[in-house]
Amino acid sequence: MVILKTAREIAAMRQAGRISAGALREAGKAVEPGVSTLEIDTIIRSYIEKQGAVPSFLGYGGFPASACISVNNVVIHGIPSAKEILKEGDIVSIDVGAYFGGYHGDNACTFPCGDISPEARNLLDTTREALYQGIQQAVAGNRLGDIGSTVQRYVEARSYSVVRDFVGHGVGAKLHEDPRVPNYGTPGRGVRLLPGMTIAIEPMVTQGTHKVRILPDKWTTVTADGKLAAHFEHTVAVTSSGPLILTLPD
Ligand code: MG
Fold first, then answer.
1. How far is 48 from 167, CA to CA, in rounded Å?
2. pLDDT class for 250, splitting at 50, 70, 90?
3. What is the DSSP string of 183-206?
4. Is residue 1 part of a domain?
5. Cα of 233 to ligand 1 centre, how many Å?
6. Which CATH number fits the domain that encloses residue 175?
7. How far does residue 170's CA lie from ligand 1's centre (Å)?
8. Is 237 helix (H, G, I), strand (E, B) or coil?
9. 166 CA to middle of ligand 1, Å?
10. 219 C-alpha to center of ligand 1: Å?
């Protein structure tokens, strides 16, 4: 069941979203060669806790850290580790949520570590732009298929693939609410968008096949062919005056 939010609830979600965005920004500043993914996780956790919020992912379904940090061919759900040291040229997807005032904000970004290849840069630029193209479709009266098909068309026109096995989602008092928000679809199909819907739009884009594989740790999700993946996400409210991105920093 899709839970519509009042203007007051959306304002509360904006507070949670602001903290999530601040945590992501701080995490991005810390991405550089020689830093471990666990160090970045620690920065994220202390930022969120300093704001009086709680990391949404910590303990969620048993997840052992505050953020998912996914390097290179890891698409999502990478587990931060002291043993994983970032290197020049890596691309680092960081997904973080904060719970504050009864609501979650959820956002993600893929950051370059030092100088990255033109191919990796193009993948990041394409995925970020696909997210913004999708957000522009988060308009009352449209349908979910308008978001998904727009993301898919943008990505596939550039010879990349969109992951199918994982999708965006409603977000609110729970981190994952209805509806599912796929990054693929058919224009004019799917759930109709209404003012008060709050959704996480999160294209996961790969250089090669869209197929993914989950490692034996039951979290780490990698591309089936070992090629690079990128992931960008915002929490967005559908309002009568258009899409409102809730996960922007101050
Ligand atoms: Mg999400």
1. 25
2. confident
3. S---TT-SSBP-TT-EEEE--EEE
4. no
5. 7
6. 3.90.230.10
7. 9
8. strand
9. 10
10. 14
Q: Report pLDDT digits (tens) over 24-44.
A: 999 999 999 999 999 999 999
Spatial CA neighbour of 196 closest among 177, 215, 218, 212 = 177
Which amino acid, residue 134?
Answer: G
| pLDDT-derived band at 183, boundaries 50, 70, 90 | very high
Residue 168 Cα to ligand 1 middle (Å): 6
CA–centroid distance, 115 to ligand 1, in Å, is 27
Among residues 239, 237, 238, the alpha carbon closest in space to that of 247 is found at 237
Kindly report, residue by residue over 79-101, the tens digit of the pLDDT.
999 999 999 999 999 999 999 99
Q: How far is the CA of 206 from the centre of ligand 1 (A)?
A: 17
What is the whole-number distance in angstroms between the Cα of residue 36 and the centre of ligand 1? Answer: 23
Q: Which domain, by its residues, includes 221?
A: 7-245
Assigned token pair, 159: 């010879």
Identify the sign of the CA torsion 151, 153, 156, 157. negative
Domains contained in the chain, number: 1
Neighbours of 115 (CB within 10 A): 10
Within a domain: 75: yes
In a domain, 250, yes or no: no
Q: How far is the CA of 108 from the centre of ligand 1 (A)?
A: 8
- C-alpha distances out from residue 62 to 58, 100, 129, 178, Å: 8, 20, 32, 21
45 C-alpha to center of ligand 1: Å?
A: 17
Ligand 1 mean position, distance from CA 118 (Å): 27
CA 235–ligand 1 middle distance (angstroms): 8
Query: One-letter amino acid identity for 202?
Result: E
